Amino acid sequence: MEKGYIDLHLRLSRPRETPFREWGWSRGALMTTMGGGDGLSSAPSEQRTSDAVGRRKGEGGSVENTGPPPLGQPGLVRGTEIVPSTRGQLKETLARMGGRAGVLAVRCGPVEVTRAAAEDSRVDFLSSPGPLDHIVVRSARENHVAIEFPLHTLIHTRGTGRSNYLKAMGRNLMLARKYGAATLLTTQAREPLDLRAPRDAEAMGQVLGMSPEEARRSLTETPAAILQRRGL
Question: What span, in angstroms and rounded, lies between the C-alpha atoms of 136 and 216?
């Protein structure tokens, strides 16, 4: 399995002009947002081309991709973040997408949506979570769904918002440890200035409460396993 550092949640507006590999990353996923029941609702102009086509081969299996080379940068692949407002909307969107999502995330929202996402093995990770409960985290572990710890929020919030974020991530980390759920550190970088070198990202993971080993695993082994399962 790949040993390099991987950021599975990039939102770069000009990916061709952002040589993320020079920062020390080996792979990355450029995410497009899809509203539940809608088409692609927000994406960089460079990203609005055909998604890589895939097909999952059973639970925990791999995905065959036959799409175009990803975005002209070695190591950069496509991903989709679904933002559903209801459980039914989530299921409908997943069914309609089939295997065409690349890396697939579901943004946490209403409790019923977050629980449904955690119960669905087609989902790679739960994105932008607030405080999660034990039901969600246990389901995520059982269905191989990772839990995201985004550094963008840590970087760009101050005061009470930052304090509340740290508390929420601390709770999520405690539950992930208790139930053995996979954790995923991402930058959610929008612009080049949002990027951080992998070692800096590791250090920021420790600010969220991770041990050095947990932070490193969240930037290497967990995202590598997702890409391997997807065949990317």
Answer: 24
Q: Is residue 176 part of a domain?
A: yes
- Assign residue 68 the CATH number of its domain: 3.20.20.140
Residue 152 in contact with residue 194, Cβ under 8 Å?
yes
Q: What percent of the chain has pLDDT over 90?
A: 68
Residue type, 138: R
Within 8 A by CB and 6+ apart from 154, the residues are 162, 165, 166, 204, 207, 208
Strand-pairing partners, residue 219, are: none
Indicate the pTM of the whole model. 0.84
CA distance 162 to 105: 23
Question: Count of domains in the chain?
Answer: 1
Backbone torsions φ then ψ of 162, nearest 5 degrees: -65, -45
pLDDT in tens, 105-134: 999 999 999 999 999 999 999 999 999 999
Can you say whether residue 209 is alpha, beta or left, with left for phi > 0 and alpha for psi between -120 and 50 degrees? left
